[in-house]
Backbone:
């Protein structure tokens, strides 16, 4: 898989429409897809997408808060877990299950706690509230090999600023996908983000 660390966050996606959107994203070049657990019937969407697209992309879950949710997701075949906060017990359970963890954090203390628990990636959330300068300063004290993703308010227009600040990628939410939009709209936005990624790299 091409290592384009742009995570498509499909908050609100429904099982009946998930395949069209995930398929469009993968066709355009996305390799990471997150279905948040506050989406309708995610217990159906995630295993269905893992079965259909799991060999083409890393399919997983977002807004993961508890170790028990990790157990359910492991059984569903999720390969990625994204947390909104730094919860060591949740991170440890996912790592023990062999799942890639992108842990949410906002401070150096939270970041190092997440890494100590075994998180492989970090997400700075909400990035738009902090800005690229803050992330660059935080990156200066973090292990350089740890991928840091900007999440929250990332658009095709500002993606380059966060990559220049040292981010390895970004999580893309409502500017990429809003519940109810067509797969064609998702494809169009995916192309804009990938063009911005290529221009910035």
Residues:
């Amino acid at each position: 898989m091409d290592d384009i660390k742009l995570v498509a966050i499909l908050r609100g996606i429904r099982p009946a429409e998930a395949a069209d959107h995930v398929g469009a994203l993968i066709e355009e070049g996305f390799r990471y897809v997150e279905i948040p657990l506050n989406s309708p019937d995610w217990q159906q969407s995630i295993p269905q997408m893992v079965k259909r697209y799991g060999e083409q992309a890393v399919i997983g879950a977002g807004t993961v808060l508890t170790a028990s949710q990790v157990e359910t997701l492991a059984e569903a075949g999720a390969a990625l877990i994204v947390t909104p906060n730094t919860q060591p017990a949740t991170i440890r359970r996912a790592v023990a299950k062999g799942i890639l963890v992108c842990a949410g954090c906002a401070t150096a203390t939270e970041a190092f706690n997440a890494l100590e628990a075994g998180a492989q990636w970090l997400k700075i959330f909400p990035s738009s509230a902090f800005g690229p300068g803050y992330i660059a300063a935080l990156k200066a004290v973090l292990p350089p090999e740890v991928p840091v993703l900007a999440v929250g308010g990332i658009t095709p227009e500002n993606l380059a600023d966060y990559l220049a600040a040292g981010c390895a990628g970004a999580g893309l939410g409502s500017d990429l996908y809003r519940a109810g939009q067509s797969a064609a709209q998702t494809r169009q936005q995916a192309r804009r983000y990938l063009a911005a990624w290529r221009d910035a790299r």
